[in-house]
């Protein structure tokens, strides 16, 4: 079995992880200093979001130079030290490759702007009148996806910020340059890669207006996607490394192909369908209650179909773009601990490789920023203004940001109850919520019943039991939508995972017999397993194993 199927991956957002030199910004030495903590969790890999040279308009997802380190994060020596120290602890470093676009400060784009034909062909430039963009496509961060360059009398495409210009992957030279970047980092000893919005790299032949949406149906999982991935993987020899593609608005059919080992594309895929079940009509900026029925259906489809067709999922709730899961689907107050643990059980016992985003293992919450001045994220600030223009009041716009902003996950890691949560000696670049006084790594280290120790136990169980790694999966039906329940089976063994996603007692409709089962883990004290489970308590998670 592939090693990544037994692994758990820990995601670090360096800017908010640990500040080793007191400038208020997390850095690479900060990650190295905290390797023993990550090791103590049992994580096998660390995926770090980008720390390359960048103007930081999108916190490093706007890369100016893929082979050098942004001085705010440290030096190349620091990265080499991180890779070496991680390896000593049996941890592999995975880097984040942002290959759909570069910063407009990248040398290639600057040469394109200067009119060098060779480099203009690195990007997607279209002729046009200054007031008529080539298509009506929208940027994911709001506004048009096109920007006009008067000196060239052309528009360029940017699916994200105006300073993130989309690359032209139809140009073989672009593909060769990307391979060189992979080879460069592979030689440095990194053990894997995460590919940012990689399913957007193949643009359509014809650029046309989208009268149904924002354009994404034309460029997501585009015509040459599989060809480009196969070529990138084959020519860099990374087929046996851990690779994960971040797939934006993708489909199950494509993800099966991206991750089926026979296709020699990627180890696994991230998709976001399960994180849109609280969007109103698919709109992130309209608040809606979580649709638990839909959540379960999405997981069921992706879990069972990937198994059937030999694909592999990356499974997760949190990352640097998502609000904190305990604030989103759990309870920040009365059942904080129970709900954080229950949500962890849901994910970690699925068929797939689990990802933990820094602080998730502590049950960190959304920070609850109250003023627009507290936000840093380009998407959040853009949408704040868009919401106001649409006629929403300030309060309402701030309420929406409070739940949906990407900055919800970017508040500093809560290490201890000291000033600034032990993240930095000085004021952090982004605010830290008051609850660091009790939600923090040091306090949870001391408490055997903490969220932190629950995550550790889940990771240990995955390593120990092949049924968690490779058992087949079956979702349990005939239950209330808010009961997230599934069964894993391997040989004569059976694992039963029952989770109540609400703050009310919930009966299972039909009681489940516990005959022959052992309790593997759970978030309520349990001295003796009852004969039957007929009801789950608020946010209760019960995990039973037989055979
Ligand atoms: O994210 C892709 C992406 O589509 C998200 O930003 C998305 O808009 C959000 O999660 C849901 O509303 C990747 C990176 O993870 C993100 O940080 C970058 O900003 C983006 O690509 C551009 O590189
Ligand atoms: Ca620093």
What is the topology?
Elements: E1 9-12, H1 28-33, H2 35-41, E2 45-48, E3 52-53, E4 65-69, H3 76-88, E5 92-97, E6 101-103, H4 107-113, H5 117-120, E7 125-127, E8 146-149, E9 154-157, E10 164-166, H6 172-187, E11 192-195, H7 216-219, H8 225-236, E12 242-246, H9 252-259, E13 268-270, E14 279-280, E15 283-287, H10 292-308, E16 314-315, H11 325-328, H12 336-348, E17 353-357, H13 378-389, H14 394-404, H15 441-446, H16 451-464, H17 466-470, E18 472-475, E19 483-490, E20 493-500, E21 506-513, E22 517-522, E23 532-536, E24 541-546
Parallel strand pairs: 1-2, 1-17, 2-5, 5-11, 11-12, 12-13, 16-17
Antiparallel strand pairs: 3-4, 6-10, 7-9, 8-9, 14-15, 18-19, 19-20, 20-24, 21-23, 22-24
Helix pairs in contact: 6-8, 12-16, 13-14
Bound molecules: 1-O-alpha-D-glucopyranosyl-D-fructose and calcium ion (CA).
1-O-alpha-D-glucopyranosyl-D-fructose (TEU) is lined by residues 58, 61, 98, 140, 160, 196-197, 246, 248, 284, 320-321.
Description of the molecule:
With 547 residues, the protein is α/β, with parallel strands linked by helices. The strands form seven sheets. It has an eight-stranded parallel β-sheet. A five-stranded antiparallel β-sheet has the order 18-19-20-24-22. α9 (252-259) links the parallel β12 and β13 (268-270). The radius of gyration is 23 Å and the shape is globular. The mean pLDDT is 98. Bound molecules: 1-O-alpha-D-glucopyranosyl-D-fructose (TEU) and calcium ion. The site of calcium ion (CA) has 6 residues, from loops. The site of 1-O-alpha-D-glucopyranosyl-D-fructose has 12 residues, from loops.
């Amino acid at each position: 079995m592939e090693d990544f199927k037994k692994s758990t991956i820990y995601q670090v957002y360096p800017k908010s992880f640990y500040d080793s030199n007191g400038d208020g910004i997390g850095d690479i030495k900060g990650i190295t200093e905290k390797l023993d903590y990550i090791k103590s969790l049992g994580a096998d890999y660390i995926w770090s979001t980008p720390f390359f040279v960048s103007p930081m308009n999108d916190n490093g997802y706007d890369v100016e130079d893929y082979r050098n380190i942004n001085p705010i994060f440290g030096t190349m020596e620091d990265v080499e030290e991180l890779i070496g120290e991680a390896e000593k602890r049996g941890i592999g470093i995975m880097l984040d490759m942002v290959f759909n676009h570069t910063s407009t400060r990248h040398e290639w784009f600057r040469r394109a702007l200067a009119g060098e034909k060779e480099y203009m062909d690195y990007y997607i430039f279209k002729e046009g009148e200054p007031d008529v963009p080539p298509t009506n496509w929208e940027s994911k961060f709001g506004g048009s996806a096109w920007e006009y360059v008067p000196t060239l009398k052309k528009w360029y495409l940017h699916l994200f910020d105006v300073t993130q210009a989309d690359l032209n992957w139809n140009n073989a030279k672009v593909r060769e340059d990307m391979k060189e970047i992979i080879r460069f980092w592979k030689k440095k000893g990194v053990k894997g890669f995460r590919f940012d919005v990689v399913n957007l790299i193949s643009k359509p032949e014809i650029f046309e207006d989208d009268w149904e949406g924002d354009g994404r149906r034309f460029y997501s999982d585009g015509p040459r996607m599989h060809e480009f991935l196969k070529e990138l993987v084959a020519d860099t020899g990374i087929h046996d490394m851990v690779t994960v593609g971040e797939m934006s608005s993708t489909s199950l059919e494509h993800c099966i192909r991206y991750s089926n080992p026979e296709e020699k594309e990627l180890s696994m895929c991230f998709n976001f369908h399960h994180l849109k079940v609280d969007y109103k009509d698919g709109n992130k900026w309209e608040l809606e209650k979580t649709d638990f029925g839909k959540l379960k259906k999405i997981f069921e489809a992706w879990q069972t179909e990937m198994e059937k067709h030999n694909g592999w999922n990356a499974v997760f709730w949190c990352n640097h773009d998502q609000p904190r899961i305990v604030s989103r689907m759990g309870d920040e107050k009365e059942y904080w601990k129970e709900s954080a643990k229950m949500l962890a059980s849901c994910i970690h016992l699925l068929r797939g490789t689990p990802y933990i985003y820094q602080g998730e293992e502590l049950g960190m919450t959304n920070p609850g920023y109250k003023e627009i001045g507290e936000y840093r994220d380009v998407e959040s600030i853009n949408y704040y203004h868009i919401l106001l223009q649409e006629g929403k009041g300030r309060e309402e716009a701030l309420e929406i940001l409070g739940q949906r902003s990407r900055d919800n996950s970017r508040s500093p890691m809560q290490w201890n109850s000291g000033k600034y949560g032990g993240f930095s000696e000085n004021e952090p670049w982004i605010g830290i919520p008051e609850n660091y006084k009790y939600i923090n790594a040091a306090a949870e280290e001391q408490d055997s019943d903490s969220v932190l120790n629950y995550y550790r136990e889940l990771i240990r169980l995955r390593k120990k039991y092949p049924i968690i790694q490779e058992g087949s999966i079956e979702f349990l039906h005939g239950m209330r939508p808010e009961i997230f329940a599934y069964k894993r089976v391997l040989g004569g063994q059976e694992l039963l995972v029952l989770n109540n996603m609400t703050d009310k007692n919930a009966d299972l409709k039909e009681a489940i017999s516990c005959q022959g089962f052992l309790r593997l883990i759970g978030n309520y004290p349990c001295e003796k397993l009852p004969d039957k489970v007929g009801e789950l308590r608020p946010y209760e998670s019960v995990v039973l194993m037989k055979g």
